[in-house]
Amino acid sequence: MAEPTVRMSGIVLASLMFQHVNSDSDVEGLILGESKFEEQVTISDSQADHIHIEEIYNIQKHVACHKLNTFYNSVGDVNVEAVKRLLPDNKQESVIGWYRQRRNTDQLMSFREKIVHENLKTSLSNPHMIFVLLTPSKLTSPGSTHRMEYAAFISRSRKFINVPVLVNNLGLLEQLSYWKVSAPCSAAGYNLTMKKHGSKFFSSNGLLREVNEVNKMNESLQAELQKACRDVEESERVVETLQADVSALRKPVEDPPEQKNNLLLHEAVRALFSCSPLFHTQTLTLEAFPVPAVCCGAERDDGDDDSTSDALKTQETLSLLNQNRTNCRKRLKETTEGRERKRRKNHTLATRHKQKKKLRIVIKWRRFSSAK
């Protein structure tokens, strides 16, 4: 729900006080201005964007009644014609509420004021209406010092709420608060001045000429930015297409297909290995001769003669293998004995040579000693 706030300038507040001080009785009248909703977005790093909606009532002017109960009767019914008579130069849409000045009373609305307020909302078809109450009182008995209290009220579902009132040039206000103040109600002199000199500074749509130029420049920049975005998008699509082509070309390079020549070569080698016995694994004898293959699972279709002849061949082959193995062992033994004899002979010769060398040294030493 929007938080309501009432804003007025110091001039308007001083005018209300001055009028009340110069009158002998209570005073009431209508309030002119505008009501609007402002949306404030607070951006911070600690939390998400916070949106704050504020309902602002800007009081720009007041119209006083010559006497009490001018636009309503004793029961509280509002007379719309009387309201129009109070607004000769102002539109009815500029009415945002009414006010009442009472002396030496509390800051509370009376029952009649509540009824008049609800009827005024219905008669003017404006649900956003405010009621401003001013209650002056004497601080000293001679009347040299007075105290003026003011408050604003709005009704929500027939429940009246006290709304804070902010005066632009009173209190500690931020510098931007003056920018939020709406322009006062137009007067005749203001309209004449604007018609006379406004064409030099303002265009037909009511904006400054410099603002129109800035808007045109902004539109041109936006058009160029959109064009650049379209170019970037097209270039990205081209890059994606090229990347897809490169990926498609890399697959054959990484996984090359087998060539037909290699397949034919493999088939030829397999056929050669399977047909030629030279490429098969064979058992060799000690003399490096291949051992004939022994067929254990020979075919028995030729009868007993074939089986007998195969057995004889197998025995002969085995006897030849045993004979070859015996001869090989004998040769190894003879070779080992010859090497041993040769090693002993060489050792004996080396020993004799060393002894002869020692004798020569001894003889030379004796000769040398005898000569001395």
Automatic annotation (TrEMBL):
Residues 6-154 form the MPN domain. Residues 204-245 form a coiled coil. It comes from Seriola lalandi dorsalis. Residues 331-353 are annotated as: Disordered. The keyword Coiled coil applies. Its main location: nucleus. Keywords: Coiled coil, Nucleus. It is found in: Nucleus. This is Abraxas 1, BRCA1 A complex subunit. GO terms for molecular function: microtubule binding; polyubiquitin modification-dependent protein binding. It holds the Pfam family MPN_2A_DUB_like.
